[in-house]
Amino acid sequence: MTGREAIQHKRPAISPELDPCTLSNYYDVNIVSSNLDLVVSFDNKTVSGSVTYVLKFASKRVSKLTLDCSYLDIKGVSVNDKSAPFTMLPISEPFGSPLEISLETIVDSEFSVSITYATTEKCTALQFINGDTGPYLFSQCQPIHARSLFPCFDTPGAKSPFKYKVYSPSKVLMSGLPEETIEKDVYYFNQPIPIPSYLVAIASGNIVSAPIGPRSSVYSEEPKIKECQWEFEQDMEDFIQVAEKLTFKYEWSKFDVLVLPSTFPYGGMENPNITFATPTLLCKDRSQVKVLAHELAHSWAGNLVTNCSWEHFWLNEGWTVYFERRILGAIAAIKAKRSGRQDYEEYGEKYRHFAAYLGWSELAQTIPDLAVESTSLIWNLTNQDPDDFYSRIPYDKGFTFLYYLENKLGGTKEFDDFIPFYFKKFRYQSIDSFQFIDSLYEFFVPKGKQEVLDSIDFEAWLFAPGLPEYQNFDTSMVDECTNLADKWISSFVKGDVDLIKATFDQEKDFASFDANQHLVFLGNLSKQLDSTDVDPLLVRVFPDVYPYYSESQNFEIIFNTSSLLIKYGSYSETDTTVQRFASWLHTVGRMKYVRPGYRLLAKHISRDFAIKTFEANDNYHPICKALVKKDLGI
Ligand code: BES
Ligand code: ZN
Predict the structure, then answer these.
(1) For this structure, is 295 an active site residue?
(2) Can you list the residues of the chain whose pLDDT is less than 50?
(3) 351 and 591 in contact (C-beta within 8 Å)?
(4) Does the beta carbon of 592 lie inside 6 Å of ligand 1?
(5) Which residues are involved in binding Zn(2+) (predicted)?
């Protein structure tokens, strides 16, 4: 059996499905509003203050309210402004120790609950560090770290508008629109659009700003601000306009970006109004601005229409990657048109396919290393830490599913009518994958597509583990890179250093390559070295004949070239290539590089060396530390 019928037996009794990763009883109440009133202390390394919720019973009255907390110091609770009894329940990792509040005294259906508290040293959401120009604080709440920043309904299944007030000795940014004040060292923000707690974000430090578009500014510490501006200003507004064309008007007013210190553990984080970004985007070739296309796309996928639990995370990331690639394709077309190309539309589509192919190869490469149960689109996260399930699966398997649907249902033209329908239907809500499938039926059946839908193996797409069926991506841009990799490999196999050097007219070979094509080239070279017997001493010559490594400021190229060398160059820990890579790993905090970087050292140099190198750096973000420890079995 295929189609929607085939997944009926997996359907939850109520939709959207409940979230197993929260201990709160969020389903018993509706959140009318949330208010945070905070004080940042750089001396104590804490955030303290109060959170106040206005709540309504959802259907029936309940006698208790349970909120997620993790290592919070709870000072007091009041219900309707009167001090109220509370209990901290025993800790149940990784979900923390929830706070239970008695609601016995409540008469009306609407009531307020206020909790005063402080964060502690064990807070996983915050990092206090020395920035380039002074003390710095930033948060990362997704997926379940908001509970270590404030008592909350820590589930993407519960949304609320937020207001924030913060006292801090230095500039504060939060995930809302700033509001004017004359009070010194006090910052106000308003987030009128209902958001889940994982999108609450705070940063404070010596931060300045520069414009990167009519509705966008970039923020960073002063020494980097010009660099940030250059890297992003060319594309930001184009991205927004293309995204709006695919969906509907950008609803959040401003799209600003904060470039954080290097310990920020992700490439980007879609905090509403203030996307957080890694400084590894500053690669001097504008190739990583694509991460902002991705975070921008979350303004619709994730931030307006939200996965109801991390089990359906692919709905957030798969859709976002789908948009990201549509945006990049459209931008490539715009640029091709400006440069006078006749076939600019085709070129844009080729570019999208190129990006899709890149994603597909990464997916194929990582699947063998993943726990099988994490390789399906829908996860079972009962008693699981969602951080442990993080991988390319929701991104690229999610993308592949949507790309498959796009083709199956008639191509971009047909699918493009569905996109605004879906995002309008579910905006401000949190949904599960079944509701997504239902919306496909709702939209496409009247268009005569019932049979097509019924022929789709939704069960396999959503629940089967492993690599999905390969899609017919246009590989013309990929082929250029593969051919070059073939040429390089054959000269490596011949095994003569001078010949290797002579074979490559580097300038000419790479003249038309952009950074992404370099990555495909490197990926292919690496794949071929896996299956070809090449003398490690020859591999070590590679940096001399591939100048883009030593010259590049592009972290992707640095990481991939170093990985290739360490994998196939048979180095030992005292070799400069290894030493240099080890020190480089101390300068980046983005887990995309840090985690595979240490795994690489453990596998190809030694586990001891990997652990020694890791432990020599005290600066990693708490989330990054925890995950590398798991990776290395510390
Ligand atoms: N929302 C994610 C980051 C995230 C996911 C943080 C899960 C915590 C838990 C963000 O939008 C993202 O996907 N970032 C990518 C960017 C890339 C796919 C362009 C990253 O960090 O590399
Ligand atoms: Zn994302």
Answers:
(1) yes
(2) none
(3) no
(4) yes
(5) 294, 298, 317
